[in-house]
Amino acid sequence: MHLELPSSIGALSFEPGVELDYWITDGWDLYPYVKAGGTLASSSQVNAIIYGTGLRSDYRFDAFGNFGLWRATLAYAAAHYHDVPSESFTRLRDGVELRRNLNLTWHSRAVEIAPYAILDVYFNAPSGPSSGIAPRTFQYELGLMMGVTPRWTILGVPLPRLGIGYREAGVLSGWRLVLGDPF
């Protein structure tokens, strides 16, 4: 295996948005959102205006004495490119994570592990304008997150958890380093 680190940034995106929080029950929240922005790429033909909208559902539960989270998201995203045809797609994502504190402490904090699984279903899956690669309609990912409870903070900002996952997505399959949350 040969690992090459990138020598440049291929694209830079900025996409601010607004998200609302609707409390349904103590363990269930709905989050409708809308966002819009732009992306600058190393090839000017794929610079784009990007936007999206969607609805996220977070359901928190206890399973086998562990904290669980089931997250479902229905999202629509689009990119209006300057020199190539525009793209849009709709994605349904279901993900589940089970967090468990181990009987292990590090600097007075409980070590936490969290296996997770994600299933994505793409409707009208886009193809990359410069690559021509179209993702599979169905993709999945399995992985493991690690962290500590309570989390360390810097200036009141909690440090993210770390994880690794493998995404099965045809020619786009591969390992993913996860910072924060897997979904």
How would you describe what is shown here?
- There is one protein chain.
- This protein has 183 residues and is an all-beta fold.
- The protein is built from no helices and 13 strands.
- Strands 1, 2, 3, 4, 5, 6, 7, 8, 9, 12 and 13 form an 11-stranded antiparallel sheet that branches. A two-stranded antiparallel ribbon has the order 10-11.
- A hairpin with a 2-residue loop joins strand 10 and strand 11.
- It is globular, with a radius of gyration of 19 Å.
Rg for CA atoms: 19 Å
How far apart are the first and last residues' alpha carbons, in Å? 28 Å
Roughly what is the average pLDDT, rounded to an integer? 89
What does the overall shape look like? globular
| Quaternary | single chain
Count of helical regions: 0
- Please provide the ordered H/E string of secondary-structure elements: EEEEEEEEEEEEE
Instruction: Please identify the structural class as seen in this structure.
Output: mainly beta
Biggest sheet: strands, sense, closure? 11 strands, antiparallel
Instruction: Tell me the total number of β-strands.
Output: 13
Q: Classify the helix fraction into a percent range.
A: under 10%
Proportion of strand residues:
over 45%
Low-confidence stretches are: none
